[in-house]
Amino acid sequence: MGTVNGFEELLVWKKSRGLVGEVYSMTSQGAICRDYALKDQMRRAAVSVLSNIAEGFERGGNKEFIQFLYIAKGSAGELRAQMYVAQDQGYVSPQNSRRLMIQLGEISKMLNGLIRYLKRTEIKGDKFRIEEAEGIFDIDTVPGSQA
């Protein structure tokens, strides 16, 4: 049994980081890059997912962490809605939109799983066990764990 020593070890944070890169790349080309309001809002929503996971983790307690995970989940929903706008305006292809929507769905499910885990665990401090948290942590990077 290991501990998570930093938000960078959370698989959901890693996936969110990848999503930010894709959103920045997608909004840097084509007509969407000239729709400054939508481009900026999409980037802010993507960064918000990543940032709220990190900020909540660093708060040190499960209650606050859960609150920030809910905010991250809300930002993922916001970005999904903005993807519909981008697709409806012809800024992104249905294929690219679908790919990002799938990623956002996976991230939302992972956030839900982490929230459920944190609500039921006995450990309430800033470090917690990897017990029954399959798919939430990247086990290979957690010190003291065995894959």
Can you put this structure into words, describing what you see?
The chain is mainly α. The protein contains four helices and no strands. The chain has helices at residues 11-26, 36-59, 62-88, 94-120. The longest helix has 27 residues, at 62-88. The radius of gyration is 16 Å and the shape is elongated. Residues 126-132 and 139-147 have low confidence and may be disordered.
Concise summary:
This protein is mainly α and 147 residues long. The chain has helices at residues 11-26, 36-59, 62-88, 94-120. Helix 1 packs antiparallel against helix 2, helix 2 runs antiparallel to helix 3 (62-88) and helix 3 (62-88) runs antiparallel to helix 4 (94-120).
Q: Strands, helices and their partners?
A:
Blueprint (H helix, E strand, L loop, with lengths): L10 H16 L9 H24 L2 H27 L5 H27 L27
**Percent of residues in helical segments?**
55-70%
> What is the first-to-last residue Cα distance?
11 Å
Number of helices: 4
Give the topology string: H per helix, E per strand: HHHH
Q: On the 0-100 scale, what is the average pLDDT?
A: 86
> How is the biggest beta sheet arranged?
none
Low-confidence stretches: 126-132, 139-147
Strand-pairing-aware structural class: mainly alpha
CA gyration radius, whole angstroms? 16 Å
- Count of strand segments: 0
Content of β-strand: under 5%
Shape: elongated
